[in-house]
Amino acid sequence: MAKTVGLPTETKDGERRVALDPSAVKMLVHSGLDALVQKGAGIGSGFTDEDYRFVGARIVDTAEEAWSADIVCKVKEPQPAERSYFRPGLRLFAYLHLAAEPELTEALASSGVEAYAFETLTWPKGHPLLAPMSEVAGRAAAIIGAYYLGEGSGTLLGGAAGVPPSRVVVIGMGVVGTMAARGARGMDAEVTGVDVNLERLLEVHEQGIVTSTLYSNHHNIGEVVSTADLVIGGALVTGARAPIVITRDQVESMRPGSVIVDLAIDQGGCVETSRPTSLSHPTYVESGVIHYCVTNVPGQYPRTASKALSAAVIPRLIDLAHDPESERLEGSLNVSQGQVVHPAVLASLKGESQGVID
């Protein structure tokens, strides 16, 4: 059984979230675990060292001390400078997105880390540790897209009297796509929801989340993307690299100044022209289209995101500390005893196709 849990300060560009808020750390301590919180880890989310100390955490000065714990719980995948803390037997619990990170995967495996990923946990159903950040990212995507559409083509998402609203296409009607569509509809845009799941398309249309729906295939996507002002990509395959659902030629068919927000970029992106960007440098222009491909979108809203993430993670973290074989951790183990053990991650790293996703 683990005795200590480390909470290091996040080091990814622009990342201000923290994996556990003080209320979660209090639960951790009450479960019999010793919490090692790096000094300043919660500041970006509005939580002081004193807040953590008050609930029983031990504040440590350095990342090395936080990483010395039996379990390290963090938000984003370890950055290159953090890999020096890897060691045999360390349990890591975080968003890892290993299908898009072969070098990180190799570093975890070769160092003997037991790596558990938030995004692949599937108990009791769905993706309960991914959903909170998908919700935040989806809500943010509509805001972000509206802003850059103004910067690009100068178009207002909701139009005006005598001027039709913008056309928004959302690929994938999971949590992230649904939230993005709701946000765009809330600004009076015309929103087309695209998915391979016809039942889900019926649901979102009946609920008024979208104004129209479209079955996902190459031909249909090409037609609707060519006239879109804003495209939001939310395609997902659990653990695997995101499928490419929008090709380069389809991007080239879009009007200059239109915008793509690729929320699948953590898993490699679902648009052929996408490449990862950072909160410091969030966009680039290719074929006249503004691409926003930030890999940690919820990091822009750290207090909301940290509270939502913390509430979802803490019960599973306690499970991991007391019983790493618990069924409540189903699907989360990605790397163990030097091997990639999650089938979808392994298939993606071998370059095997995962097909098109809803």
Describe the structure.
- This protein is an alpha/beta fold.
- Helices cover 32% and strands 17% of the residues.
- The chain folds into 2 domains: 4-121 and 302-349, Rossmann fold; 131-295, Rossmann fold, CATH 3.40.50.
- It has helices spanning 22-30, 49-54, 63-67, 102-111, 131-151, 175-186, 198-206, 218-226, 248-252, 302-322, 343-349; strands at residues 4-7, 34-38, 58-60, 71-73, 91-94, 114-117, 167-171, 190-195, 212-215, 230-233, 259-262, 283-286, 289-292, 333-336, 339-340.
- It has an 8-stranded mixed sheet with strand order 3-2-1-4-5-6-14-15, with helices on both faces. A 7-stranded mixed sheet has the order 9-8-7-10-11-13-12, with helices on both faces.
- Helix 1 (22-30) runs parallel beside helix 10 and helix 5 crosses helix 6.
- The chain is globular, with a radius of gyration of 21 Å.
- The model is unreliable at 353-358 (pLDDT under 50).
Topology:
Elements: E1 4-7, H1 22-30, E2 34-38, H2 49-54, E3 58-60, H3 63-67, E4 71-73, E5 91-94, H4 102-111, E6 114-117, H5 131-151, E7 167-171, H6 175-186, E8 190-195, H7 198-206, E9 212-215, H8 218-226, E10 230-233, H9 248-252, E11 259-262, E12 283-286, E13 289-292, H10 302-322, E14 333-336, E15 339-340, H11 343-349
Parallel strand pairs: 1-2, 1-4, 2-3, 4-5, 5-6, 7-8, 7-10, 8-9, 10-11, 11-13
Antiparallel strand pairs: 6-14, 12-13, 14-15
